[in-house]
Design brief:
25% of the residues lie in helices and 33% in strands. The chain has seven helices and 15 strands. The strands form three sheets. Strands 12-11-10-13-14-15 form a six-stranded parallel β-sheet, with helices on both faces.
Length: 266
């Protein structure tokens, strides 16, 4: 009896120590003057280390650099805590921010801000799995030089198997290691926010000049190929079906041979 009461009291204390909201949304990518279908997930830490979805919560979305009233959209969260809204995209290409907020009935406010990369539809892109980029040694220097050279002619989209809560640290890594900035996309099925379309296929729909990707594993190579991309790896001696093994130093030249479609006005 004592043990049961103690456990109930402990659970009550843990629940009382929670109540912290978490609001998460992936990086966004869109064409100028279009719409960015932005999905966010709201959870609350009701029990220690247990995030539960918050349903029927009103979430507001707007572009930070625009007049809030003009760009604001709103939606209620579903049973998974997810809400989505088609946010109007600025006309000007570049990096903007989407702000997402929620205020509960007690006046408690939670908010997050995610980058919105606005690129012309005919931009040339390359997908790079972050796990394929070495973090130290000579290979890291070669990778940094190759990616920075590539970024002069192609936009870089980073793919990762890490969950959304790690993406802020991944952006910090890109900055600290002087790697090109770009959207970070969780591309494995278990990391995709409920309701979100398969990322690579959606990006290719918007940007047909996403034609190649650099991957870290045979599984990743298959995923790239399934999305219609040419898969490449920097792993020496990799013998994966249909995958080109290319060193970092040779990667810019190898990718420069990939065809790029141009808009009618080019």
């Amino acid at each position: 009896m004592f043990r049961t009461c103690f456990r109930l009291a402990l659970l009550s204390c843990l629940a009382g120590c929670g109540g912290q909201y978490r609001l998460a949304s992936p990086d966004q990518l869109a064409e100028p003057a279009g719409e960015a279908l932005t999905i966010a997930r709201l959870t609350r830490q009701e029990v220690y280390l247990l995030d539960l979805p918050v349903k029927n919560a009103l979430l507001r979305f707007y572009i930070a650099s625009e007049q809030q009233q003009a760009s604001q959209r709103a939606a209620f969260s579903d049973s998974e805590g997810c809400a989505s809204a088609a946010v109007p995209v600025p006309d000007k290409p570049g990096v903007h921010s989407i702000v997402i907020t929620h205020q509960d009935i007690d006046g408690k406010v939670v908010w997050t801000q995610v980058p919105l990369y606005v690129w012309p539809a005919d931009s040339a892109l390359v997908a790079v799995e972050i796990e394929a980029i070495p973090t130290c040694g000579e290979n890291a220097e070669h990778a940094r030089a190759a990616l920075n050279e590539l970024s002069t002619s192609r936009k870089v989209v980073y793919l990762t198997t890490k969950s959304l809560r790690h993406h802020h640290k991944l952006h910090s890594r890109l900055a600290n290691e002087n790697l090109p900035a770009g959207p970070i996309v969780a591309w494995t099925p278990e990391q995709i926010t409920p309701g979100q379309a398969e990322p690579l296929s959606e990006i290719r729909r918007m940007f047909p000049n996403l034609t190649a990707g650099i991957c870290a594993s045979r599984k990743s190579a298959k995923a790239l190929q399934s999305a219609g991309l040419e898969a490449m790896t920097t792993q020496t001696g990799a013998d994966w079906p249909g995958v080109s093994a290319v060193g970092w130093q040779d990667m810019p030249g190898r990718l420069s041979a990939s065809p790029v479609r141009h808009g009618e006005g080019d």
